[in-house]
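Deliverable D5.2: sample structural annotation.
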Amino acid sequence: MNPKVDFYFAKAKQWQDELMKLRTIILGCGLTEELKWGVPTYTLDGKNVLLIHTFKTYCAILFFKGAILPDRSRVLVEQTKNVQASRHLRFTSLEQIIEMTPIIQATIQEAIDVEKAGLKVELKKTKDFTVPIEFQTKLDDFPALRTAFEALTPGRQRAYLLYFNAAKQSKTRTDRVEKWTPHILNGKGLDD
């Protein structure tokens, strides 16, 4: 147990018993406990394998390379359709964690094996994301915008494409493209 991580478990108002049980199970699998992003993160030879975190209705183990785990027990959950690599193993009670301990351990071992093998999640490239017609029209009509968009980092490009595509109506997509065009021209991402 890493004393730097103790505060996370001590401050938990909800899920405290569940978090402590998960911590014990994970540490029993031989991973190193660290504090990253303000949450308990477990590594193997300095590489992130999984972390523990909480939500209102559940606590979870997030497997960084969950998308390529065999998931023989079919327990891993994709957080959203846009998450490419990680997967959750969710819990709503201490009893559920106790009952699932063998599955949790097996899934952690799968994650360790994936890390030891050096496997990587094949991430989609920016070109694989759909460009909404409203944005494509703007790019075609405004070469400076195309140049500015192509100069953005791949992550910023993907964030814009996901944001524009999330709108259900064409008018909303058009409004979003218009609103964010100045940011793109200034080389900024959605969160800059």
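Annotation notes: Residues 9 and 20 are 7 Å apart (CA to CA). Residues 3-116 form a domain with the Aspartate Aminotransferase, domain 1 fold (CATH 3.90.1150.200).
The annotation will be released with the project's public dataset once the embargo ends.
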